[in-house]
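Supplementary Methods, section 5.1.

A reviewer requested that the exact input to the structure prediction be made available. We therefore reproduce it here, unchanged from the version used in the analyses.
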Amino acid sequence: MTGFVPDLAAAVPAPADLGRVHLIAIGGAGMSAVARLLLAAGLTVSGSDAKDSPTLSALAAAGARVFVGHSADRLDGVDTVVVSSAIRTDNPELVAARERGLRILHRSQALASLGSGRHVVAVAGANGKSTTTSMIVAALVAAGRDPSFASGAEIPQLGTNAAIGTGPDLVVEADESDGSFVVYAPDVAIVTNVQADHLDYYGDLAGVERAYRRFVDSAPDGGLLVVCADDRGSRELGEYARGTSRRVRTYGAREDADVRLTSADPTDVGGRAELSVGARRHELVLQVPGRHNLENAAGAFTVLTEACGLTPEAALGGLASFSGAARRFESHGEPFGVRVIDDYAHNAPKVTAAVRTGREMADRRGGRLLVIFQPHLYSRTRDFAQEFAAALEPADEIVLLAVYPAREDPIEGVSSNLISDRMSERGPGRSVVVEPDFEAAVQHVAAVARPGDVVMTIGAGDVTSLAPRLADALAHRAGEAGEAS
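The structure derived from this sequence is encoded token-by-token as follows.
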């Protein structure tokens, strides 16, 4: 059964025309952000999800009427239904919405409706969207701009992933997975990278590249496009945009970048770098680790200073205050002397960046890197098994969970063994275990971890539940060791 296919050419209605809004799968990261914004805009909001979660409780506390489970009677009195492309066409609420002739919007269209009259900043790219979005938002808040925003990850220092502010800016994470990012018509767009992903939708890299060009074309004349000079796809998109009526600014480590990142020095707890803008030099200081985050911050700095009216000093101060985005190299403590990290990485470049950062951290500690990885989507596992094997190679111990299906049905012959087999082909030097049982995976890693090691749980599915369980198991080991001594 296929997923919902939105009419992205349809006119985006004004918020006042939406009436009572019901969101199917309201508990998801993107849908919950839209729900919070609609509530903040004064609309009556309801929603359903397949299972209960803290997100549903938080939305109920904010004023939404939430349901666990999907049923046609959830739509009584509803005017507009909001869905994502992951919603299957046989979902009883979507079926009922069509039968009743209700307005059906993709979540991006509902979010775009809230951009009317605001200065819209859209953050796109295969990797780094949530972090870069969160960095921009945190800096604007620190500067007193009170932005509206919708991010795919909670911003812990703000306690939410979405809000309506009194300032002029609306900052949105523009998801490219289903082509729906073309509806935002942003005044400012930043593209962190353009890479082969979501091939179940686009087919090949050429399809991805065409979608990003449509994203550029959706911006108004004179709009600003900020691209990463270090990524080939993003750089080529900038060249395309220069042939249109849009302005282009670049950032990155390349010598020809408009905002050049040099002297990058990541640490376990953050990092420093120098940003060169013409003859001016600025010191960038972050609380979040990883070379990729220094690059994300360079992109955020470019947007903040070139398009949002912040001085370099205000932008740098705001970036220095940023404490991270949920599930983006998020620490779960250091029980038994083992650093436990959870990360949302789910495509090969993201996994590469996360594992590289974990490897650097483990090397500085004189320890090993242990990874529990949950592949996300059968199609992605099939298409990129070799790339995942290469991304995981720097780890010393790797536990592969079963594929998290998300919106997909199983594909014959596709499992985590595809990655394990590719790793075997790359030669010895690491331990690779395929273990679909969560508890067995936790106990295995907790048993072999040693003080100084770094343990990472990686993936976009429910693997995130293992990080606190690992921390508890390691704390138990520490207690037993203390009793034995």
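The domain at 15-111 is CATH 3.40.50.720 (Rossmann fold). These observations are discussed further in the main text.
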